[in-house]
Amino acid sequence: MRVISVFLLVYSACSLFAQASSTPDAVFRDFVPLSSLQAVGDGKKLDGEFFFSTTAKGSLLFVSDPLNFYLIISPREKKVFEVSKNDLIKEGDVYHIKAETVLKESGMVVENGDSLLIDLGDRKFFIKEKDPLLGFFSTDELLKKNKEYKYKASLYKFSTTLVEELKKFNKNVEVLVFFGSWCPFCARMMPKILRVAKELEGSRINFKFYGLPKNISGDAIAKKYGVTGVPTGLVIVEGDIIGRIQGRDWRIPELAIKKYLGI
Q1: Which helix (H) or strand (E) holds 175?
Q2: Average pLDDT, stretch 19-30?
């Protein structure tokens, strides 16, 4: 199995959004959910969540209310800064750091193979890639499991016209989507697919999602359907597979589905 550096995962995620700002206020705004990482200390997963900055490339925010732990982590500068809960402003799933906050440097970041070591002196923990989401999920189950997908789904500007046309389709359709929660391209496409799935609820077009491991070829369900890459969607009408959506066709999911349904 190919090891992906957490450092690269962070940069991959942040590259999908805005580049760094030069103003102090903007640098610590807009920390959005990042669901691909976890914190591990003493061999156990720490109770907390990661967010990444859309304005300061590569910066992470680790929030743990149970541990009373609020850290800004900069892998690029190899520094860790501590803030208090009172320094945080939360708007929905997004965090901001108050402009007047004084950052207290409290540790350093060390690359450690496929993880990052966060060294706070008397406390240490690792940032590691999360285990992949595996098996079948409904739309709501997947949105609940992956807050990053949920947040990005809320940003997708779907075509109302195309969605309304799909709602009128008069045959039973299932769109079976194979994805990898570890896959950067899926992190871009899956939120769009999930948004369209939510918009089509109540119609005759239903979605089902199947999470794959990195070793796709070793999964029996993927092998059964001939899936070799993610995200891959099978368009099934009245029990028959009539199309396969892959790669860049997912840029506009509602259009890709419409194409195969011949609407």
Answers
A1: strand 173-179
A2: 49
